[in-house]
Amino acid sequence: MQNYNVEITDEILKEHNLKKEEYENILKILGRKPNIVELGVFSAMWSEHCSYKHSKPVLKKFPTKGKYVLQGPGENAGIIDTGFDIGVAFKIESHNHPSSVEPFQGAATGVGGILRDIFTMGARPVAILDSLRFGNLNTFKTQHLLKGVVSGIAFYGNCVGVPTVAGETFFEDAYQDNCLVNAMTIGIVNKKKIKKGIAKGPGNPVMYIGALTGRDGIHGASFASAELTEENQKRRSSVQVADPFMEKLLLEATLELIDKNLIIGIQDMGAAGLTSSSSEMAYRAGTGVEIDIDKVPKRELNMNAYEVLLSESQERMLLVCKKGNEKKVEKILKKWGLHAVKIGRVIKEQQFRIYEKGKIVADIPVRALTDSNYKYFPLKKQKGVKPAYLKDINIKIDDIKIPEDLESVLKKLISSPNIACKSNIWRQYDHMVQTNTFTLPGSDSAVINIKDKDLMIATSVDGNGRYVYLDPFLGGMAAVVEAARNVSMSGAQPVAFTNCLNFGNPEDPEIFYQFKKAVEGMAYAAKKLNTPVISGNVSFYNESPENAIYPTPVVGMVGYIKGKNKRYAKQYFKNEGDIIVLLGEIKEEIGASEYLKEIHNLIKGPVPAIDLKREINLQKTCVEGIKKEIIISAHDISKGGLAIALVECCISGSLHGNKAIGAYIELQSDIRVDALLFGETQSRAIVTVKRENLLKLKRIASKNKIIATEIGKTGGNRLIINIDWASKKYSKKLNIDIDEIKKLWMSGVNEYV
Amino acid sequence: MGKKIKFGVVVFPGSNCDADCLWAVRDILNQDAEFIWHESKNIKKYDCLIFPGGFSYGDYLRSGAIARFSKVMESINEFANKKNKFIIGICNGFQILLEAGLLPGTMLHNKNLKFICEYVNVIVENNETPFTNKCEKGQVLKIPVAHGEGNYFCDERTLNTLIATEKIAFRYCDINGNITDEANINGSVYNIAGIMNTKENILGMMPHPERAMIKDLGSEDGKLIWESLINYIKKS
Fold first, then answer.
1. What ipTM does the predicted assembly reach?
2. Would you give the distance in Å from CA A352 to the centre of its chain?
3. From the CA of B78, how many Å to the nearest CA of chain A?
4. Are residues A607 and A685 part of one domain?
5. Rg of the Cα trace of chain A?
6. What's A676's domain CATH number?
């Protein structure tokens, strides 16, 4: 056996990403020097990725309770009630660092990890969403990353048989060195069969199921908790390799085990592998664990305890079953061509105790690894400092020249990477398997039917890093508000959300300020919208020596459509001759917009204001209008403003074999024409109704104090926008061929995927 | 109404359209249907076996290459040679039937080398078969595909035989039924989307009829294929 009692030098501490004072704490906890195995364990468990040491105090600001919440943050995934006998489990997670280094495997294993988080709760995954950020699309690097990430997600999700139903993809220079890959999974669980990651009952066996342990991914958690330097990028061994077929087997076997009520607790071996899964399961149950390294199934020869404990080989799970049930567990695993191996047992003493060749090679109090309230836990109490760049961040609107040729502005915007169609991305994802996807990708939110229940789920994943960069608090609010609005455009009541908080190095006070303010903004909006946070993930250190990413909180919202009739709406125009109505206000807000970036080359504020009361009322209006079958289609106005939203209403239906439908629009307004067409004022939507229902819609809107303006009619094969100023000299007319604009829309991003 | 047709949906460890197929024939079309685990040999009692889509054994080697050696396949020839017994292979199921030699030809990667999931149009080439008798000849069906290896290939002789004996069930076409290169999403020989064996009791097709069963999913055209078979079995 190897000698683990090596001298712990500064260099070794640095390799393990441990600070000097953290090492001092380790000495106090153990009352002796740690050996190298124990140091590795501390290093992984105290990494930001596992410990949330920088973020935990801030995350407490989120509302996490509510009448729908069955399981809040702290488990493998959160769960909300449906009012039926089922719950909805969901969570989002990042796989940014691995994807930046090896996009295909990084993204694929990201999907694998989040799927396991869902099915370990006993839930069958029914949908995957993804939120992606890349750098400049005109660079080879971005094209390479984009292709790799998309095919990695497709490779995994398609094989496992879970539809990838929605997502978002953005391109900004700030993500050039650090792409973001956030994946979300939604699952359905029988409320009586919810499982948790707990190691209850001393004497009960700890069993290992799934793939063998190899040397891949050792120190993945600490890899994800450092900036991506050139030296770091070489740490390719930190990226794990995906086996979606193994995942599919694990999924079916796990759900069968849970269905037959054979297990007490189960957890994915995710970040920090066997170490985190076993210690966290023990912590939640107030117990300890003993594990015998010799019994762990290994893929490679001569793996030592250090490697086995810190391996992040994929598709592995740890479970605790009742003593005596081992054979039954093994039988089910065998049916799926897998093995279950007893590798240890639950103990009463709250210790994380590891044996190798009969000798103890690690012996650490469980709480020291997992409990942020533990005396020596390295929780960081930090203060933020307002970043200097925020001082001079807003435009004076009068300095911005209004372009003469608005048609070419519209054409440029529609083909710009952040607005252009992403169909070549989601065409690679099986988004139809399970035969529940009623609203296919390319609408504001996906609608997932629940068979045999008067229930459907609408879901959307959203975030706008630029907004958060320009105004962290407002940007944080905007992420929540937009996700909720997208869900409501399908006719769903937003219920709860999960979030992935992607930021730079939190030890930098300016980054910490962004983080804190963004979370405060999100928490504020979440409280007002009555949509608690039920799960989430923090990804720090998304920066290179050149720059940090835009602070990018991503919100994955889930809403319900209830009732026998299952009424829902899609974003695109459905019929010719329908009346087009603008819900919401027209304001002179062009700050932070795609228009300002693409046309004036300016990334400047002010970020559009949010009136939460108005936002809630807008959502109510849409949900009620759709439920009563008054609203035929509904699309929120976001990137690119009113004009882009109108174009999308005209052409996005044609992606799934429907007809593109033109429109004739009359706008009467005295504000700047660029703000009118391209401003991103919040809390607005374009809806269509039949002529005879217009009054009914107006009544619903006025009850909710929302302005409803009839702005035109659908039909034809052109989009004509007539702008009529009070003083006629500024009147403008845009007249665009639908097929031509569709070509531009289809070309912006699709050719690079 | 009369007697219900008995469907068996063959489940391999990596099948993932098994539940959808069961739903389509049992819940939507109200027939008898159940899963058959790939280790079972007891397949005699079924009128029709469905080989569903998915990734039967992960398909890292070649789609369907391993599944053909599973236990359930041992008695498949005997089943297929009996009177009034039918087999439908969809997507990965089609690939398995090709690998097993029950249908001629093979599958290549899609011509763009990417997985493609979307609604496509296929034209009914022959409507006098157990699987298409409820369709019009030349009818355009809107049914989705979802595959990475759906580029059907066979040698010229086989193709000529398929054409001459009218064993091509469906071909990719545009919305108006024109058979064009653009509509041929995966690059298949002769735009082939589905074929039958000589006896016309085995159908293999890449599009997923079980995904086009209700309007909310975007199309009901998939029903026609199942209903044709049900109709045929009931009449015979």
1. 0.96
2. 32
3. 26
4. yes
5. 26
6. 3.90.650.10
